[in-house]
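Changelog entry: the Protein kish record was regenerated in this release. Current contents:
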Amino acid sequence: MSALFNFQSLLLVILLAICTCTYVRAVAPRLVDRNKEGFLGLFFMAARIGERLSPYVALACISMAGALLMQ
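Regenerated structure tokens:
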């Protein structure tokens, strides 16, 4: 089933995108910072969310891992 139609899979994809963008911005900031507008600006926004809300993103990742293990 597509990740767009399954809510749990959609949340997993969003969490992975946030974590990946945050990591890429920490390693190579110029790669993410140069695209602040348009479609690629979504990656910049995901990196911002990951930086500013990192405790909540970490808790969401842990709870998602627990939910996937219980399935």
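DSSP finds four helices and no strands in the chain.
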